[in-house]
Amino acid sequence: MRKAILVAAMFFTTATVFAAPAPVEDAAGGSNDDRISRLERIIKAKQQGEFDMQRRMDALQNEVLDLRGITEQQNYQMNQMLQRQRQLYEEIANFTAKSSTPAAPVQTDATSVAAASSTLGETGSYEAAVNLVLKDRKYDDAIPAFRSFISTYPESNYAANANYWLGQLLYNKNEYNDAKQAFSTVVSKFTDSNKRGDSLVKLGMIAEKENDSAGARALYNKVLKEYADSASARLAQQQLSALKG
Predict the structure, then answer these.
(1) pLDDT 10s digits, 66-81
(2) What is the pTM of this model?
(3) CATH class held by domain 175-245
(4) Which residues does the UniProt record annotate as the domain YbgF trimerisation (predicted)?
(5) Measuring CA to CA, how many Å separate 221 from each of 164, 198, 231?
(6) Quick one: pLDDT band at residue 233, thresholds 50, 70, 90?
(7) Which of 42, 52, 115, 197 could in theory staple to 232 by disulfide, Cβ–Cβ 3.0 to 4.6 A?
């Protein structure tokens, strides 16, 4: 009898277990499906974050490449400009004061030059003076042409360049006092001119010619301070490095 009761109890317990199985839950209290869903969302969010990060990195890389291209283009243009400037300096520096006597000499006295300036007008007079240097290579004739232009149009937009050209021509003829006056005019009167830095360098070179090393050094340092990273500054640094005493 006791054995039959025991068997019946075991049968009842087993039936109860199979009839109502307990749900499986994770440590956070959710079911397996909930946990899988959460993991999928976490993985998806992480993948989206990595995708966004990669997209931003690609965008930054493209910006860097664009900036590098712009920089290279600007460097090329700067080198071209410096090369042209050096050519102009060489053309002026290498001219000879002596020239063959022309068959039909052109008058270059102050009166005739002034008359020509009044006829050509402001822009025409300046271009005519520049062409005497660059095209005709008549450097001696260009000096009175620039002087006449400066006298006639002292406030012209070309006045700073005209004074610089005049100073350069006089410097190459070793007429340092007159050249100094022309360069000093650019420095003191045309403070916004892009020729001011070059004029300061030329004044420093004239100071060297006059054995004024201290004055030359001060002028070169002024260029380095006021026109850093410019062609004038690089030329000033070269002169400063070669300066003795």
Answers:
(1) 666 666 666 666 666 6
(2) 0.55
(3) mainly alpha
(4) 32-104
(5) 20, 13, 14
(6) very high
(7) 197
* Residues 216, 202: Cα–Cα separation, whole Å: 9
- For residues 31, 32, 35, 40, the Cα torsion angle rounded to the nearest 10 degrees is -140
For residue 6, what are its two tokens? 């025991």
Conformational region of residue 174, where left means phi above 0, alpha means psi within -120 to 50, and beta covers everything else:
left
Contact of 111 with 142, CB cutoff 8 Å: no
Tell me the two tokens of residue 210: 């006059």
Integer angstrom CA distances of residue 194 from 65, 97, 207, 224, 230: 31, 28, 21, 15, 10
- For residue 51, the model assigns a pLDDT of 75
